Amino acid sequence: MAGGAVxxxxxxxxxxxxxGGSGGSAGSDGSGGSAPGGGSAPDQKSVKQGGDDYATVxxxxxxxxxxxxxxxxxxxxxxxxxxxVIPARPTxxxxxxxxxxxxxxxxxxxxxxxxxxxxSKSLPSYLKDKAGSPAAVGTINSLNLxxxxxxxxxxxxxxxxxxxxxxxxxxxxxxxxFSLRPGYPWKQNxxxxxxxxxxxxxxxAQLDAYRAAATAIGAGLGDKRPTITPLRFMPGRTRLYAExxxxxxxxxxxxxxxxxxxxxxxxxxxxxxxxxxxADADWIFYGVYGSPSSxxxxxxxxxxxxxxxxxxxxxxxxxxxxxxxxxGLGVMAANAVLADLKGFxxxxx
Length: 349
Description:
Shape: globular
Number of helices: 15
Largest sheet: 6 strands, mixed
Strand order of the largest sheet: 1-14-13-12-15-16
Number of strands: 16
Distance between the termini: 36 Å
Radius of gyration: 20 Å
């Protein structure tokens, strides 16, 4: 692509530490994972960014879940790794990513264990009031299996992309249910996670309410649909998020268009500081992963090219919360993004 590269994650992903499994890329945005030493199992690779199955994950998840009636246990849940029997409604849940955390908290469940994004060792601020005080069990890129086992969980929720190599060990600790991948299939992941608790109807109702809110924003805009660029500064890279990302799905649901460079069936497009003009749109919403000093945010925002962008000149380049726009990966984060969009783009809707 002229002026930018479609994001490929083959060499960018770190292997897990002491726990010995594979992890996701920095940022917990559902962008990929690799096995120790840089390799990965074929089925795991296929659902990575750019993999053969990346764009068809939602289709492949259609058979996931359970046909058990609400409240009926034991129940068998089909998921990305196997069919797992859950003997009783779980009460001690460990979540292995930000999306699973958002999902269980949305259902009124406080997990006993949680992993953190590498750039943050605390709960996302938008969930703190409802998430309780779960114990830390490592980071997304480095699970602490001993800490997980010590919590005596009765359910572990994660994804094949993040922790496929640790599934067997995790399953020995507690019934473990994996989605294919975090990120843009967040709605299907929510329903899958809800099925373990018999709360599919509740999850469906929350998704219906989210869709209604998104539609209302679009209706309030009428035919005046401004273009939106979700821009993220990360250590070593700058991303313009595209259609197959969490934030891309939220924009599609309104719908709000993105510039042509972002209209690709990919997670994101990467640009350098000298290509930041590719980010120009009616509105630019930018987040930063971790410390701004570890990224090129200050260089870009202080540069001459940034000041030439139409959105910057019109005062429509605004910072947003990274933990909801890019890390949240669940319905509560999606609703927070909608609130931001309504406030900025459609205040009268």
